[in-house]
Fold this protein.
Amino acid sequence: MKALVKERAEPGLWLADVPEPAPGPGDVLIKVLRTGICGTDLHIRDYDGWAQQAVRTPIVLGHEFVGEVVDTGAGVTEITAGDLVSGEGHLVCGKCRNCLAGRRHLCRATVGLGVGRDGSFAEYVALPASNVWVHRVPVDLDVAAVFDPFGNAVHTALSFPVVGEDVLITGAGPIGLMAAAVARHAGARNVVVTDVSEQRLELAREVGVSLALNVGEATIADGQRQLGLREGFDVGMEMSGRPEALRDMLANMTHGGRIAMLGLPSEDFAVDWASIVTSMITIKGIYGREMFETWYAMSVLLEGGLDLGPVITGRYPYTDFEAAFADAASGTGGKVILDWTA
Ligand SMILES: NC(=O)c1ccc[n+]([C@@H]2O[C@H](COP(=O)([O-])OP(=O)(O)OC[C@H]3O[C@@H](n4cnc5c(N)ncnc54)[C@H](O)[C@@H]3O)[C@@H](O)[C@H]2O)c1
Ligand SMILES: [Zn+2]
Ligand SMILES: [Zn+2]
């Protein structure tokens, strides 16, 4: 089968012929229909410092996908051929304290699909049935392809109650945009999104935010004044991974404000801890998705009319992967989809 492979320990990505995976006991074999390109895939393509320590070559990339089940291994009963599925990209150990307690998203031995084992940028992928989410209601295939990052957005956006609250989201990348859509849909009063890319802020406006603010040109305090806010934001969602964005957020929170932090900083950095203490701010790190509570929420949010249409901005056949990766790396658009049936 065709697959996008990191063949060698150097920058690049290769479209190669690799053996089709066979479903072992408890696995399902999935014919991949569409996949989403993630920042992680760009890091692995570029083979940066993180990728050099995280990835052993050769490896098939990719973790965001939708596909159709074509075969099941021994012992799989709830999933059958023909089911439309997306995959949870975190494979957990099943044995640690958190796994045994049902808190699988907190597993300390998580292996990433397309990072620690072969992934979904291929015509077929085999996954444990326990990592598969069956779409039981009709869903747009492009949206189904990005359930993994959509889950990051939902996990973050629903970490703290947002009904009637003023929400600040730093970073209008694909995940920040989806979190903005969720916070809006979930009943926030104001949703303010910041970025430095005017194109991405324009996408945020399409999603329906109260204010899309370019922090290269105005401050978040200016934004507060514009909206008539007097005491700061109730809920913050950090979606950029940038130190200055978290510092800006901290300086604009209300006392007792709550921050869910998804953005992954690449280095240590300092923040004003004294103000976190005296303002009694809560900061919660968010990794992945809750299995499978977040997935349930994603499906029902879509059923309830949540629109992610503006977030998907690029569509390419898998053979055009170089153009698709360049699009995703431009940092100016939304989510980029590869079609594996074209
Ligand atoms: N914790 C997890 O499980 C998890 C999973 C996926 C991604 N992530 C991280 O979440 C973040 C969001 O992912 P993404 O794919 O949307 O990323 P992205 O890199 O596409 O988006 C980040 C955005 O932040 C903007 N930005 C830069 N400086 C800023 C500033 N000072 N203020 C506001 N915005 C600023 C960038 O212009 C960009 O549009 C990334 O840091 C990513 O590494 C975490
Ligand atoms: Zn991803
Ligand atoms: Zn575990």
